Amino acid sequence: xxxxxxxxxxxxxxxxxxxxxxxxxxxxxxxxxxxxxxxxxxxxxxxxxxxxxxxxxxxxxxxxxxxxxxxxxxxxxxxxxxxxxxxxxxxxxxxxxxxxxxxxxxxxxxxxxxxxxxxxxxxxxxxxxxxxxxxxxxxxxxxxxxxxxxxxxxxxxxxxxxxxxxxxxxxxxxxxxxxxxxxxxxxxxxxxxxxxxxxxxxxxxxx
Length: 207
Hints:
By secondary structure, the protein is an alpha+beta fold. The chain is built from five helices and ten strands, in the order αααααββββββββββ. The radius of gyration is 16 Å and the shape is globular. 33% of the residues are buried.
């Protein structure tokens, strides 16, 4: 399986709580290192490096891990939020960064969906191709977004939205200088059938 290129070594201070959380969530899910790595689409060695802090996860990778363990990126980062608070004030949505992607949590805790405002940087490297159960919805706020759904490529501008079945192989990338800003909502499903395919040549199981 072709993997997403590894992130830089070392763990920034703001991500220092992630490695032990990853290990704890995996064990609580009853998954071995090998099984969890297969579900996320990584080698066991790469996942081990993430769990020990020797590699820094990108935002797409944090999303993949959160989905596999049935939790949110905020939970992975150890961020605390009032349980079941229906209102998220602008001043409470502090930006976080992972692998060059910047995001703001704009949904409540303990829900079946995760809502994020995301800034996707413009990059030359290939982006993450994902396949998993559930649904995703996104709305472009600024810039242009290139959304690949199966073999179809769509370019979305401000005000455009997409709502699709996550079992469709999909890829999100910025299509404008300066990146793209969007609202992103996805369902959280902890399932042994959850799969993520990384790279252009990864197998697409579960279709």
